[in-house]
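To: structure desk
From: M.T.
Subject: fold request, one chain
Message: Could you run this one when you get a chance? Sequence is below, nothing fancy, just the single chain.
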Amino acid sequence: MIISNFDQTRFLSEYWQKKPCIIRGFIPDFVDPIDEHELAGLAQEEDIDSRVVSFKSNKWTATQGPFDDFTTVCVGAWTLLVQGVDRYIDEVDELTELVNFIPNWRLDDVMISFSNEGAGVGPHTDEYDVFIIQGKGERRWQVGLPDEYKESIPHPLLKQIEGFTPVIDEVLKPGDVVYIPPKHPHNGVALSDCINYSIGFRAPSSLEVLTGIIDENIIDPSSAVRYTDQQLLQLRNASTRSAAVDKKEIEIIKQQLFELLQSEQAEHAILQMLSRQSLPNDDEGISAYALEDVHSALSLGTTLARMTGVKPVYAADQDSEEYTFFIDGNRFSIIQALREPIEIILNNKQVVIGIDIDEDTLNWPEFISLVTELINAGYWVFLE
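Reply: Done. Structure tokens follow.
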């Protein structure tokens, strides 16, 4: 379960969602894109999810941020954890490009932790896949296999397990990675002051998807088929009791739900839900561009760059007249003739018209209109 020369195809066939592994030297000569002081600064922000987990005198404590004072919570063996750092720091967002063979919609966020010697969050399991990159320092990782483990809650904000047998017991050095599939118990303990980068991948349950489709509220109620039983005599016979629901009646309802889920509206609701990232809302630094300004910049070969943390999603198969994609719950559409250049923009961090995209193939009015909309929404910028 130790990989010394990473091969994407082998990893996906042998390990992804199947078994854990250590990837040695995944990032050669790795240099941390952030230090513990910058991480502490993020943990002071009101709209950033952070917490400190500490273990002292045989007692676990956990405190939710934001933090004004760390001295009262960073006691004993302690870990500072900050969620969604990839949405704020471009160099952290770039770490997700290392695993871009996993689709955007599966990506949750990059959580960064700083731990002092002996610290961790205790043995536990998660419902998601995670690549944990070792930054500075060293951490010992123990990973086991799925089983029925006794659960313990040493603190209301902590859920741990007891008694797992590790199949991996290794020390990670800077640039090494541990991959842990869902439901695999694991425990990481810092051997020195260290930083870890956890790239987590979500996997919604079918019930969460069904609830999400409703919550997106984009399906036109008038398009939903209402139940009818005009052929009631064929559905129920004379011996069927009034309190009973016939199997055929249930099948009709299930079939109507299936037809609704098969609709284009439901597909858009799913894509809209999967695109949501809770990106920072910072409109103050955004200047509105006019169409002619964007046209002029693109004509001169100015680089168009995707903003930090932005992860577009779109359906690979689209047959309608409009090509549609989603960013953080927002829907964008354009004529199908522009699908290819738009997908180049969506799938690359930076593009230049005339180099990455053939400008002679563009329908300029439509193209400029969409690019202007994306820039003014704060999802793309021009690089000087």
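Reply (cont.): The two ends are 45 Å apart (CA to CA). Let me know if you need anything else for the meeting.
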